[in-house]
Amino acid sequence: MQQDYGTFLKRFAFDTDKRGCVGVESELFVVNYDGFPVPVADRVLGKLGGNFTYELSRCQIEHRSSPCSDMLELKHQQISNVNLAVIAASKEGVTVKALEVAPENMPLDIYPDNRYIKCVVPKLSNEQLSAACRVAGTHVHIGTASMDEAIRVYNRLAAAWRQLAEMGDHSGGERLKLYRQVAGECEPPHIEDANHFFEMASAQGFVQNPRNCWWFVRISRYGTVETRVFGTSPHADEIVLWASAIRSMAQEVM
Amino acid sequence: MINTQEERLMAKSYKQSVARLLQRREEFSQPGRQVGIESEVCLYHPDATEHELLAIRNAVVSEVGAAAELGGAQIELVTNPCDVMAASGFQAFAESYQHRWNRLKVAASRYGVYVMRCGTNPFQPCINPLRTNQEKYQRVPDFQNHFRNPFMETKVGLLGTQVDVGDASVISLMQSFQVNVEAKSIEHGLQMVNHSLMLSPYLLGISGNAGWLECTNTGYQDIRTHAWEISHDTRTLGEIKQGLCLRIGLPESYFATVKSYFARMARYPFIMFNPDKALDIAIGLNWLDARLKFIGSSAVVELRSISTQPSIADEIGIAALYLGWLHYANCVQMQLMPIEHVRENRYAAMLYGLKGKLWNACGKLVDATEAVNQELSNAVTGMKCLGIYDDAVSFVNPITERLCIGTPSDRLNNIAKPCIVLSNSEMLSALEEACMVSCYNELAAA
Question: What pTM does this model have?
Fold first, then answer.
């Protein structure tokens, strides 16, 4: 058990150089010029670089910022990524859109990735698959230096998750409702300490892989605290506002 | 803090003023040849108290007939409008500016103070710096401070040490120079504004001269406008969600009509109350990178995004490039690039100057030096068409050389390297070595 605990802690790559830095992952739908999702993410991603990756739905792409110490740096990267995505998509006769919840009749094509096809999709009902494909969001990470600090920051953000969710909501709560259909109860619990975190991870099945924690706020394997309640926004200023709010709250306990 | 009754009266008066102005829009049909410069510098003395510096500033201002600015140590020089296309017109324009600058140097030398030609004053605190005691310089920053979005982070810095710019008075530490160009009509002026917004990041990229605040290197090439944006962000969460931009920098989209230009200004609080001057107040608070204003029967486009340069020759060179580029854009009916590319270019120029990547007019993301070089070539073509090239080339060459040697910010950072935080005396030495500050000897100044 003690060995498992040690192994568990080692799964989190805390980096003091990135302490307090913020990073953002944002999902975008690939849509036609009428705004309807089209399953060509692989073709669009083929024209983009390392800041972009795929998602479960073949109608989505995700872009990431690097860890930023300064909010203008973050804003610049957000704008830059979207500009690059628009250009890449236009070469395929489509565009990208910050759509928080896509229409029910959108294509449910899965991105051609073995993990999705063999491990993820078989476990989902049709309703869950539809819900998983229809939602897009923005995840804001803040770097922490140690597990103790991560737990303090986590608890601060977990306590504020409803306020943050409201701040980042453009769908009247529909996105989080659909998200819950896929991931179950996601409300982030209070963590007493690292041992308690380990016990919860063991009980909830993410002790081997922190990526399998679906809480709205989680401690990520990158050594960050990741807030996952925000929807999507076409406006970089709004994403920077979310990141500012996260950092401001985190700094209260760092 | 906000008087809704006063705001309503101001809005009503603004609307009437705009209607009156547009009724006489034909009066604004002009040759479009007049050009002027406004340029801000600031005074510094290591041993002077804030109030001593303020008194010296006021004395210098009254001696040289210059204007005070928000900052208690700031002075604004304004040239008369010059017809740059007349025979030797550009030369006369340069001489007029040189004359005013010489007068300022002489006056400053009498008090033994340093004159700083830099986009930021690193010697004063960003929070609660010295302000000029005039109503507008008290009321406007106080308003911005009161309504600032509390969630928006106000600390800046890329190099580890951050500076808090969360006080609207931080603008009193920011110096810029503005080029004013007469338009041939209001519509022409609006087209020039759109073109200027698009060009502005390229000029910003080559002119970065505002990286230090509180003797700390923020790592920015030019933080001036961004500090303005942060400290003046009074948007509500709802407004940010809707994608409304600030009244600073770049609008949501280019201006398609004169009506949309005036409508946008009316969207923001007037803050000041003087119904007879509602239009002037709205234009004064319209802090876009380029704006259209009205002086007598001239529609004048003002480029506002460039920090004060280390020498007036640099500013004359940049003004010449701007005039040339505007003329070129007009002649070739240059298409506007997507405004989101301009937005990215703008931030890239502020952060990285010539070391970043910029979108070029062909829609390609290229090295900043390549993109800037292309636009400077277009500007030179325009200068030749305008007939100002021969008189302006000696001013322009040192600017184009920056593509190889770097911006003024690069120069200062190289001198200060590896330090990120300096003492006042180290800062002063670095600025002197970078030729951004001088204490003039009276005889030499004359």
Answer: 0.95
